[in-house]
User: Which sequence fits this backbone?
């Protein structure tokens, strides 16, 4: 009987299988059409190179100018609302700080400015007409902006009342929440 000098005759099979898988993957991936991680925006041209080295260019039609104007205005309102949120939180935090960083008269002025500018944003928003297909989104944005305007009024009322700060803090938190909902609705 012949003696096998290799005590583990199958130990070369796994490396050969792995090498075969790597080779198969390499040749398979080379045959796939090229993919682009770029997103084609409306109005932008997309260029595709085909396997036979020909190039095609397709253009996505631009958005309707009225729709684009609506989206631009909503983006501007959102940007201003987020700045107002930051201003309100900063004023509230400075008023609550120990020692106080923002004194009462300055806090009243800043809270009043946020309330008035949020009301102005609501007027700007109400002047917009939702394009077809965005009516539900528009209604959600309106609800969030209205909640922010109400919260700003409540925060100012809490600041100017004899309340120890509970109403003011709740109003500021409600404003932060409403501005967050508005931002999420705009960006989604």
Assistant:
């Amino acid at each position: 009987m012949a003696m096998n000098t290799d005590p583990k005759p199958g130990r070369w099979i796994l490396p050969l299988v792995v090498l075969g898988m790597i080779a198969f993957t390499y040749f398979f991936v080379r045959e796939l059409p090229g993919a682009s991680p770029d997103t084609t925006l409306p109005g932008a041209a997309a260029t595709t190179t085909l396997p036979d080295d020909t190039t095609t260019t397709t253009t996505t039609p631009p958005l309707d100018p009225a729709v684009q104007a609506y989206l631009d205005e909503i983006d501007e309102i959102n940007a201003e609302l987020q700045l107002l949120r930051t201003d309100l939180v900063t004023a509230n935090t400075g008023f609550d700080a120990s020692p106080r960083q923002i004194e009462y008269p300055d806090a009243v002025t800043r809270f009043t400015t946020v309330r008035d500018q949020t009301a102005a944003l609501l007027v700007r928003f109400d002047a917009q007409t939702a394009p077809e297909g965005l009516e539900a989104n528009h209604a959600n944005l309106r609800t969030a902006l209205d909640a922010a305007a109400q919260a700003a009024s409540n925060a100012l009322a809490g600041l100017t009342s004899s309340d120890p700060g509970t109403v003011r803090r709740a109003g500021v938190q409600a404003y932060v929440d409403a501005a967050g909902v508005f931002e999420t609705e705009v960006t989604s």
Remarks:
- The two ends are 76 Å apart (CA to CA).
